[in-house]
Amino acid sequence: MSRRVRLVAGFTLAFLAVGGLLWAVGPEAVLAELVSADLAVLSVGFLAVVAALGVWSEAVRRLLASTGHTVRGRRYRSAYLSGEFLKQVLPMGQSGGPVLMSYTVSRETAAPYESTLAAASVFAFLNVVASLVLAVVGLALLVATQRGPSGTLLRNVLVAMVAVTVVVLALTYLAVYRREVLEGIALRVAAGLRRTVGRVSPRADAALAPERVADAAARFGGSIGDLAGDRRRIGTTVALAVTGWLCFLLPLYTSFLAIGEPVPYALVVFVVPVVTLLNVVPLPGGLGGFEVALAGVTAALAPVGLPTATAAVFLFRLSNYWFIVLLGGLAAASLSVRVSDPPPVVPLEDDEGV
């Protein structure tokens, strides 16, 4: 099955899931909320998304600079947005975000693939840490003001957050102190892919050759070590990640505000990172599963009905997802980036495009 066919199939399933949510909630009630939205208030959310993307791209740029490779200017920003575009439209693109981002940035700048992958991976990891911090702060504020989850729901939320935190801490330990373990895992995964994908793709077979993977893993590990040793740079990156998240979350707050049903910003800060972390639906941008989960959790915690929560989530996704797809798509078109050719795990010397 070609990538374009998988892409169409993914979006078809996503739209069916969103349509199912709309049918279950009641399209008339949701539409009534949508048409009442204040467009001026809603526009603030779009500006906040632009700010978030700008802050996050600056964080990646600074991490890349700490590896000795300086990138800047319009071409870098376009490459970053192109990576965001691929991450949003490809099934499972969220999990492969650093690979997609590193490929587009290294393709359009002088920064090597491995250094860019290290910077993008470190940022993705620190961005998860930042989202966890914000979720904990948001939950604490909700509980303190008696607006948060309680009983079984609170227990389930805490268990999920503890599980994610344990995974994050384990990955931190491996990345900083046991990089050889991660390199060994990369070699085993590459060997498995070469035995399967490599049989039908000479390009993948060459890219996944043991010596190429070992060399790339060593350079990637070295870049990770350089980044981990710069604590000041890491602190700055976390601060930028938190700032980006605060901007990125604002559209949900303004969406509720636009339809005349304001909710506490602490609720937004809590629910969006949690739903994002736990959403494992293998569809473009998590479409379908994300909307269902976010609308359900928000309606359970906020003094609003499910139709109102669903309408606010739909408005949120206009800026949080579709606006990013639009910006990223325009950037990708300007750089001739395509979704038809996936980036390799290990780049070949004659790669010409995504």
UniProtKB/TrEMBL annotation:
Organism phylogeny: Archaea, Methanobacteriati, Methanobacteriota, Stenosarchaea group, Halobacteria
Keyword Transport: no
Location, primary (coarse class): membrane
PANTHER family, sorted: UPF0104 MEMBRANE PROTEIN MJ1595 (PTHR39087)
GO CC annotation: plasma membrane
Annotated transmembrane regions: 34-56, 117-145, 157-176, 238-259, 265-285, 292-315
Keywords: Cell membrane, Membrane, Transmembrane, Transmembrane helix
Protein name: Flippase-like domain-containing protein
InterPro entries, sorted: L-PG_synthase/AglD
Membrane-topology annotation of the record: Multi-pass membrane protein
Keyword Oxidoreductase: no
Record localization: Cell membrane
Taxonomic source organism: Halosimplex rubrum
Family: Belongs to the UPF0104 family.
Domain of life, per lineage: Archaea
Pfam families membership: LPG_synthase_TM (PF03706)
